[in-house]
Amino acid sequence: MAFPSPHHVPTSPTSPTKADTPNRLFWRWWRKQTPSQQDRYATLGPLVSVLLFLVVIIAAFWYLRNEELEREQESVKRDTEVVQQQLRLRLIENQEHLQRLARDVNFKAISVEQFMLQASDFVRPRPEILSVSWLHADGKVKAARTTLTLSLEAGQSVDRDPLENQSDLYTPLDASPAPRQALAQARERNQPAYSHPFLNSSGSKVIQLHLPMMDRQGYAGAIVAEYSLEALMRHQVPQEILQRHAMSLVRADGDLLTSSVGAVTSRSAKPSFVHDVVVTPIGNGLLLRGMGFKTSSSLVGSTLFWMVVALSLLTVWTLVGTLRHMRRRADIQKALVQETNFRRAMENSMLTGMRTIDLEGKITYVNPAFCAMTGFSEQELIGARPPYPYWPRDRLDEFHRMFQQELMGRSPMGGVELNMERRDGSQFDARMYVSPLIDAEGNQTGWMTSVTNITEAKRVRDQLTAAHERFTTVLEGLDAAVSVMSVQRGEMLFANRSYRLWFGGNPEAHVQLTGGQVMPDEVIDGDESVDHFGGLPTHNLTDAGSDTHEVYMDNVQKWFDVRARYVQWTDGNLAQMLIATDITARKQAEDAAARQAEKSQFTSRLITMGEMASTVAHELNQPLAAISNYCSGMISRVQSGNIDNEQLVGALEKTSRQAQRAGQIIHRIRQFVKRSEPQRQPARVRDITDAVLELAVFEMKRRRVTLNSTIASRLPTIMADPILIEQVLLNLLKNAAEAIDSAQTPQSRRHIDLRVQQRFFEDQGEVIEFSVSDGGPGMREDMLARLFEAFHSTKAEGLGIGLSLCRSIIESHHGRIKAENIYNGQTVTGCRFTFTLPIDNSDEADTGLPFPTDLLAEEP
């Protein structure tokens, strides 16, 4: 009987092995992935395998190719530096020969023929030299030797100017030509200078070497040698190097100037190896470029290699295309879902109702706004045919006609206003726009209708219309003329009934009422920021406020109070609004009041003289009595014969003086009470005070009052009516004398002080101040407050118009009058009346009235 070995462990068919464990883990992970992820991994797996295979092949090729490229690059670099040395030695050798030639020209003063011989010897063995020129200090060519021309004498024309280039290959357009830049650089530095590459008149790419010549006076000229870049490369690059590599001259920006190409370039058009070095001593961004071309084909040309690469690339391209196609489909599907959701959200959020019908009139789509507007659900509207449930039942025929026009495409472009009915039977105003519905192929599949609820907008519009009508009715009913004129176009924009009744539709009346000023002052003064207004809003254009003045219109024989201001019209442009009120009746009343005031002045003067009549009669008695005595005495002595001629002449002279004295008194009284029109004229203050003092002295004597006057010298002339100012001053002196006399003031205090002086006040400027101070009892404070009111008097027999007239006269002269008590501590010792008259008031406009027309009216 056989027994199993103790080291043998029987395996169960269901027990997992080590190799099965990763496999099961992989399938368990694979089943957890979504189908889209499984598709992605199934596509990426072969792609990754092919990419790894291709990476290994390319890495091996890259390693071998890099070694070959490094050797080739080193060869190109070495050959380029050899050619650089060749060119450098050649250029330095030519430069030294030219420097010797320049020294001979500068110091030995050789002739043109000698220069041409030496230049010919220099040019002949050097095919890269195109010309050698001798330039004056002013840049003109004195002699030139080229490969195509003979020598030139001074003053003869040359084939071309070496300083003029046909096309500059390096400098920008706004810079000077390359030869002139090099010449200026050589002259400035006193060293040889090479120009930038350029095209000469023959179309060849050249550079120039400029060698300056200096003497004791400074710059004496230059020797210019012109190199052909093509010849320089053709003759100076060794042929053995051309067999291996191509050499070329390029600019700093990489543009090719000329190239020496050998047979090696036929193998490949694009160089594989490039090495650039600076061409010395030229510089100026000129580079020598060595180029190497691919020559090895042992590995790259292997058919097996290219087949592997091609198959790998084909497999990669197929797998990448499949992956991109799957990704594109997923992106398109995602974009489609987003676009659909966006359009649905936009349609659902719109306040405008959208409805779509097909060509037969069946509703195919409605948005939530349309459903909310009509009150019907989407299920009730989709598939509905005319008559639609939102049509009013009492207007079906009208809606059927509109529907037929809609199907025929005859709906107005501006939309149609209609009434729609909600589910609950209420109606609302709506505006409907209809447009054809075109599919992607350009075929019309139906009609798109947008509906807007305009109930509120229509209500507001009706309210605005009614408000406009009310506003127009108010303006039409005004007794004042209202007009609006465009400042820019000068045409009438609005005129109410009163304006049309008085002036018709004539815009010239508007201009006359405004005094001819329709343009704002800011624009008339020349504001350069305003360019013919430009349609700018008014508040940015002018800050002009309202202007009020009075105008008399001859055509209607009326006075108007005119108020004008600038407003922004409905079109946004500037306009002038004018309101003219008829004030003819008021002007007539003012004229009547002025005439009454004039009569009051005259009456006041008559009253004053009536009160002074006894005093004046007493004063006249004295000269008349003296005249009578002189006459009686002369008659008695003539009859007795006791008078000689000298005594008779003396008596007659005394009689004449007394008669003149009486005449002067009567003349002053007649002049004071004479009624005349008020007239503002230049008047001397001294003349006014002297006339008043002559009249007041009678009253002062009768009242036993002493009058002291202090009048400043050199007072300026004022613009005033002398009679009116005399009336004010005489009234104040008379009132002061009456106050002293009525209070029975002791003789020591019976005096009046008149002071006239020039003063300055901040609120009035330079004025003449008249001050009348008395020693009377003064006045109570409540009486001072109402002292200048009309018909208010402190005397029992007074009329109360004297001081009111005084105030009106002074204010009409733009002056001020006041009254105040004089105190000695707490005791009132008198009263002072003061009034002022401005000095410089000649520019004030005289209205023709001596003082305000409310002369007898009470103060407010």
Question: Can you offer a commentary on this structure?
Answer:
- Strands 1, 2, 3, 4, 5, 6 and 7 form a seven-stranded antiparallel β-sheet that branches. A five-stranded antiparallel β-sheet has the order 13-12-16-15-14. Strands 18-17-21-20-19 form a five-stranded antiparallel β-sheet, with helices on both faces.
- A hairpin with a 4-residue loop joins strand 12 and strand 13.
- It has four domains: 70-292, Beta-Lactamase, CATH 3.30.450; 350-452, PAS domain (Beta-Lactamase, 2-Layer Sandwich), CATH 3.30.450; 478-521 and 539-582, PAS domain (Beta-Lactamase), CATH 3.30.450.20; 596-838, Histidine kinase-like ATPase, C-terminal domain (Heat Shock Protein 90), CATH 3.30.565.10.
- The protein has 860 residues and is α+β, with helices and mostly antiparallel strands.
- The chain is flat.
- Residues 1-14, 150-158, 170-175, 263-268, 523-545 and 842-860 have low confidence and may be disordered.
- It is built from 21 helices and 28 strands.
